[in-house]
Write the structure tokens for this entry.
Amino acid sequence: MKEIFSRDIIKLKDIEGTINGICIKLKSDVNQVLRRKGGVIGVSGGIDSSVTLAIAVRAFGAENLLGIMLPEKDSSPDSKDFAELLTKKFGVKVIEENIGGALEGFQCYQRRDEAVSRVIPEFNPATDKMKIVIPEELIRKNLPPVFYVTVIFQDGSEKSVRLPMNEYLQIVASSNFKQRCRMSMLYYHAEALHYAVLGTPNKHEVEQGFFVKYGDGGADVMPIGNLYKTQVYEIARHLGVPDEIIERTPTTDTYSAEQTQEEFFYQMPFEDMDLLWYGWENGYTPEEVAPVMNLSTEAVLKIFKNFGRKKKTTDYLRRAPIHDYPC
Amino acid sequence: MKEKIRNFIAETTFVDSSTIKDETLIFDEGIFDSMGLLGLINFLESEFGVVTDDTELQEENFGSVERIAAFIDRKVAVAS
């Protein structure tokens, strides 16, 4: 019998049971399937990597984990403080690997800034900041998102321009060096220690394709990959993740200007998105969901269609290399 | 015009053009995503000289081959 749709429907009924279930499977996967003795985790000071680390401590013990901070010049300076706060709290050894040199080598910043300058010629990367956004007024038009680059000039003024395809692709492709450099460094340490890489994406990131293929999507296991963000926060509180981390607004920590995950990708508060995704995924009708969400049936239907489209168009990201060719 | 639009969509997405009817909802059906929309905006500009304003980025203008063709017609009429 299907539970009546409500705002509480995704709250964990047995939080200890859920955590223990994840820990048992995680330990079995890493030790028995992958034959590795522990794990490395990229710690950003964000909620997802914090919860992944907290769960992993319970599964493996702090002595079998290594936290790695992976800053570069666009990283928020707060990230390091939060990552240190977290690892100290859980007794996990943490090291810092600055990936800025590798990114310079790949010309990550140069390639990105070239593309930005083609659409906003007055952009000066040395003094101005940039980010990619989806303007709010375009969000609920039942079309896939179109991205804008916003430059925040030194004097605080801003300019936003819709990105043509080539410039958008170049900015994304060059920025993705960041996640891929982080992945390479995580695997270096994982292999040197005979550990596994513990990935940190949550359910939405995995299913909506909000990750970089072979970047933050490159990992051996993803312990929170089946948890809604609401549940990630519930577990964070239960396991004692520091309040400062829980209260931070989730950002992408990718571009020089701070950019929330909501403005870049999700387009709605995570509390709403969790419920709507749950409703969509579990076959609730827009008529059942709309009153609970304080939305019209038509609006819910549009959101459901958008979810379906997002999942379909991001299949490429979740697909492993195709190798079943004839011999 | 509709054939040009259909062929562009088919070439961009590797979908058989015969499956793209005038009224097929190209975004709802998952034929086109963000990249498709960006490419389509470029295509309308290069092929028909139609520049899309931000306010015109609506399903009513881009949702299907027939809607795109009607959008182009309106824009060309206004320009002339």
About this structure: The interface with chain B takes residues 135, 137-138, 141-147, 162-165, 168-169, 305, 308-309, 312-313 of chain A (CB under 8 Å).
